[in-house]
């Protein structure tokens, strides 16, 4: 039977390449001529093909694009993708056949008293070490370099100062993109962060609230992973290591410096733990806790709600295959309760998100094939690693298509050595966790396999998901690594446990070697944050303040990072701004039609839109197209300093 299948597979690929060979002949003889004809029609004002437009690209671009599509994505891409997935299928079958029924039973218990408290204290201490440089400026600076973190700070300010006081809404604002504003259904909200900030806002500075929200996720994430690993291994010590791997992973550390909402990974391991227990053991308590932690995970960030949904789906596939049943009724009922309860509560919000997704393409964003994990990044220390500045490692990290915090996927060389060393004894025991790990790594790799920044012609699941409504809006696929790290923590912990149980070494020698291995794993994951952002406003802008009248302010020049800074500065002056950096900007606004070449026309546009002030930021203007003197000549000077010039429109 095996030989028969192999023979059929060979014949299939022979036929496939005969077809592709014929396609190559057609492509070589006629495709360029066809493009030439369509391009000429576009030049003559009678376009024959809607995707060929001479105003957007030249003829050579369309020739190269056609060649890329055929040779890379069809001639090589189709066979390579098929071979990849045939290999994945065979590996899946082999792993499933190796899973022992006995692995569903917990391993012998080896816990010590107050292990939960000890684990929590260890994670708290490590958090203080990782972020020690920030503690001295805890109340005046926010964690991370000046980038997305300023947008996260704005989110907390807007929630507490504008929404709680009834001045603005969580669903729409004109504080950004004045005067039209934008929908906020796809905004980077973390309703959990918002909820806990409400009380803290009264007793702490806004910067301190932001920082405390970032830091508290570490001990909680570690505790959740500790409980999960302890449940699986029955061993307190390896569970502490597993909790560390998840909570202090490069993924989490990178998110802490940039994305306050995505930093909130702390409830994911609790959800996984109680969902597994609900499926294995049953019980209303386990089911209720699984539903609670799925809800809390969803409230931390809607991306995590979707990714947790994939975990539930993958779990169903695993059980259906292992039980040889298409319909696993008990799983369906429990999953419906866990997921359905949250969806019922948040359905008004989700319905609006879906409606927006069907109504406009503005919610799609970009970066599906950019903000993905790079396969090489699994094995190469990331930008936040203490070795990240070494020339070869730095060059590798800079080659990735995404930024450092979206590409963070390093598993740790020390942890990999432990896993490889123990693999003969953990192959069956950890098989199901390997399946989960592999599933989420594949999702994190995005629509197309990346290797050192090169896009290889191998199609991955997100090639299809990219075209599915709503699901495609999870555009930064590297975020799936959060579940991959959780499964990795389990695999490493099981490996440590089996290495510890080996009888070749005994007593003190075994203890010393184990301690050294754990220390090396810690050093491989160790990082310290030296970057933080001061919450401040230029002196010249301190005279600006909302006075109850409806008018806006234009910041120039415009860029993504500068808009984040302008949003942070808005927390001082409280005046609506023409620009912004929303996660998804829905619809056009004044900034999309505003003239920057004709300042007289610009002044008329701003006056009509009730934009009273312009702030020219001098540092950002250096090297840009902004002519500061032209603005001085057109508008009335209000004030200036070394950082900015404030002008009055009317």
Described by the principal axes of the CA atoms, the overall outline is globular
Distinct helical segment count: 24
Structural class: alpha+beta
Mean pLDDT: 90
- Which stretches are low in confidence, meaning pLDDT under 50 for 5 or more residues running? none
Number of strands: 10
Structure characteristics:
650 residues, alpha+beta, 3 domains, 24 helices
Description:
The structure is a single chain. The chain has 650 residues and is α+β, with helices and mostly antiparallel strands. The protein folds into three domains: 2-98, no CATH class; 115-130 and 185-525, no CATH class; 536-648, no CATH class. Helices cover 59% and strands 6% of the residues. The protein is built from 24 helices and ten strands. The protein has helices at 2-43, 59-98, 115-130, 132-135, 148-163, 191-203, 206-233, 236-247, 250-258, 268-280, 284-300, 302-323, 329-359, 391-399, 413-426, 431-444, 462-465, 481-501, 507-525, 560-573, 590-593, 599-608, 618-621, 628-634, and strands at residues 141-143, 172-173, 182-183, 448-451, 454-459, 532-534, 552-556, 611-617, 636-640, 644-648. The strands form four sheets. A four-stranded mixed β-sheet has the order 7-8-10-9. A hairpin with an 8-residue loop joins strand 2 (172-173) and strand 3. Helix 3 (115-130) packs across helix 7 (206-233) and helix 3 (115-130) packs parallel to helix 8. 42% of the residues are buried.
